[in-house]
Amino acid sequence: MTLLGQVLGAADEGPACYSRTVNEWVCADYFADRGAELVEATQQHLLITVLSVLAGVALAFPLALLARRLPRLESLLLGTATALYAVPSLALLPLLVPFTGLSMTTVVIGLALYALTVLVRAFLEGLRSVPADVVESARGLGYAPWQRLWRIELPLALPVVMAGLRVATVSTVALTTIGAIVAYGGLGNLILGGVETAFRAQLLSASVLCVVIAVVLDAVLVGLQRWLTPWARGRAA
User: Fold this and answer.
1) Per-residue pLDDT at 196
2) Number of folded domains that form the chain
3) Is residue 104 part of a domain?
4) Does 115 map to a domain?
5) Given Cys at both, which of 27, 64, 142, 235 links 18, Cβ 3.0 to 4.6 Å?
6) What's the CA angle centered on 215, arms 34 and 189, to 5 degrees?
7) Where does the chain have alpha helices with state H?
8) Residue 76: how many CB atoms within 10 A of its CB?
9) Cα(160)–Cα(164) distance, integer angstroms
10) Does the residue 10 lie in any domain?
11) Domain holding 70: CATH number?
12) DSSP string of 51-108?
């Protein structure tokens, strides 16, 4: 086909549904042409979310144990965690950049600090929800403190802890998009680009995928909780 024929053929087909002249919200051509970009952004979003939540759990658990052991520190620890959450992400991430650079680590640390607000309280309230007579029975049976914690208290605290973990995970999925200000926001990079260029198909696709990630991770945590607490499942039945 001649060059003139190719041009005329393209004109007959009309512009793509995400061109400047059309710019539709739902566009199959966008998924066909930019699918690899969407997959890469989704993978980065998942990785940042999971690492942030795991880091938050690793920090929150010992802090909750410390607050339970030293009640005088409880208000200080909870107040600090709440104060960190009150710091705007647009300010917190740039404050971390001089120490961690423009990297994924910056986003993970920032989101882990935000997650402490929910996770520290969840661990603390979960451990407090364990009946005192159960703890006393375990002590009377000769369980060492660490044995009581891992074999008795933590399993019984799981329902409360998992509820907090679900809230922290879903909120982290949303907050991950803020990482776009340091170029590590997963789907947030596409959302920001879609807003700046009025790219409707990209904006809608990335936003919907964020919702899907949140729903899927929440469902995974619900399934994990049911698997880890079979006694609760039997009681519900």
Assistant:
1) 83
2) 1
3) yes
4) yes
5) 27
6) 35
7) 3-13, 28-69, 74-86, 89-100, 104-128, 132-140, 145-147, 154-176, 187-197, 200-228, 230-236
8) 11
9) 7
10) no
11) 1.10.3720.10
12) HHHHHHHHHHHHHHHHHHH-GGGHHHHHHHHHHHHHS-HHHHHHHHHHHH-SSHHHHH
Per-residue pLDDT tens over the stretch 96-126? 988 888 889 999 999 999 999 999 999 999 8
For residue 133, the enclosing domain spans 28-229
Q: What is the mean pLDDT of the chain?
A: 83
Q: What is the pLDDT of residue 15?
A: 57
Say if CB 25 and CB 200 are below 8 A apart. yes
**pTM of the prediction?**
0.85
Residue 187: how many other CB atoms lie within 10 Å:
27
Distance CA 172, CA 134 (A): 34
What pLDDT, in 10s, does the model give residues 22-77?
777 877 777 887 888 889 999 999 999 999 999 999 999 999 999 888 888 888 88
Residue type, 8: L
In a domain? residue 13:
no
Which band of pLDDT confidence, cut at 50, 70 and 90, is reported for residue 234?
low
